[in-house]
Specification:
The chain is an all-beta fold. It has two domains: 2-116, Sandwich (Jelly Rolls), CATH 2.60.120; 126-298, Galactose-binding lectin (Jelly Rolls), CATH 2.60.120.430. It contains two helices and 24 strands. The strands form six sheets. Strands 11-21-18-24-12-13 form a six-stranded mixed sheet. The protein has a five-stranded antiparallel sheet with strand order 14-17-22-19-20, with no helix packed on it. The longest helix has 4 residues, at 187-190. 31% of the residues are buried. Mean pLDDT is 84; it is low at 127-133. It comes from Gossypium schwendimanii (Cotton).
């Protein structure tokens, strides 16, 4: 049944004014035109009404047999919560299944299924033994992203800010075939960055027991000439890229974006340390290192789950 919010937060988008509530197992079925990678977004907004308080919910969500959420109750924060997935679908249908725990109920505010560009996720990534963050820049809202994503500023993630400077670029970002596209990262991600003078780390929270796809976005908007910038990239203290040369990667074009994908095991500390710093090839009076954006995406585990250790058969 449908439930309307008793009190609305100022500026709250209309999709969060109401929710669909389920006491019995239920599912949504979406037709997709082509198999491949799709973006699935689940929207939740816990609110209270005279009939029901959505904070009392507790439920599981499966998507085409993959465990997306377990024992979920809409999130702890006040206001809407959006959970985004990048999923490969071989079938022409996407089934989103919601099942409430005994004596509880499930709810959802909205569901989006979007075909992803073919270059959004490649088949290869370097192994190293979304939150999405724009490094050095402001928040990027869905209005400024062709895939309606939100990119958060790095203030809550970037540690040891000594030894870094923000830089902003007002010129044209030069996208190239084979590099990053606007769907991979919008202009507002690549036209800001941190210039690193010493090793610094961006540290989002992660969950032990999962692997994560870490995508690092780069765009040399700071060098005055080609061939001046060289730096190393470390993840959890391990050297991922040595003497990375943005000029060579971009076929010797400044302000041309690219990205690298790394697969990382979450450690018991619950963090992933992403660090960029000078290399032995760094030149005097040149920028030591640059970083424009970071995405961290949890990968499903061996039980086909993105949340906890509960296999799909037990949901």
């Amino acid at each position: 049944f449908s439930l309307c919010a008793g009190t609305l937060l100022p500026g709250l988008p209309p999709i969060y004014h109401a929710a669909r509530v389920f006491k019995a197992p239920s599912k949504y079925v979406f037709d997709v035109k082509d198999p491949g990678t799709h973006i699935l977004r689940l929207h939740f907004h816990r609110f209270s009404s005279p009939q029901l308080n959505l904070a009392d919910s507790k439920f599981h969500v499966l998507v085409n047999g993959l465990v997306a959420l377990t024992n979920f109750s809409g999130g702890r924060s006040v206001g809407p919560k959006v959970i985004e997935y990048l999923l490969w679908f071989n079938s022409e249908k996407v089934e989103t299944f919601l099942r409430a725990e005994k004596s509880k109920f499930a709810f959802v505010s909205a569901i989006e299924v979007i075909s992803a560009p073919k270059d959004l996720i490649l088949e290869t990534a370097q192994s190293v033994n979304g939150d999405k963050g724009t490094i050095g820049g402001p928040k990027v809202t869905p209005f400024n992203d062709s895939l309606w994503r939100t990119w958060l500023p790095d203030d809550d993630y970037f540690k040891s800010k000594e030894g870094s400077n923000r830089v902003y670029f007002s010129g044209r970002i030069k996208y190239q075939e084979g590099g990053a596209s606007r769907e991979v990262g919008p202009d507002n991600v690549y036209n800001s960055a941190r210039l690193i003078e010493s090793k610094n780390a961006s540290i989002p929270n992660v969950i032990e027991g999962y692997q994560y796809l870490v995508r690092l976005h780069f765009c040399d908007i700071a060098s005055t000439s080609l061939g001046l910038l060289f730096f190393n990239v470390y993840v959890n203290g391990h050297l991922a890229y040595k003497d990375l040369d943005p000029s060579a990667v971009t076929n010797y074009l400044l302000a041309s974006p690219f990205y690298v994908d790394l697969v990382v095991d979450a450690e018991h500390s619950g963090i992933v340390n992403v660090t960029v710093g000078p290399s032995n090839k760094s030149m005097a009076d040149a920028v030591d290192a640059i970083l424009n954006g970071v995405e961290i995406m949890k990968m499903s585990n061996g039980m086909g789950s993105l949340d906890g250790t509960l296999p799909a058969e037990s949901v």
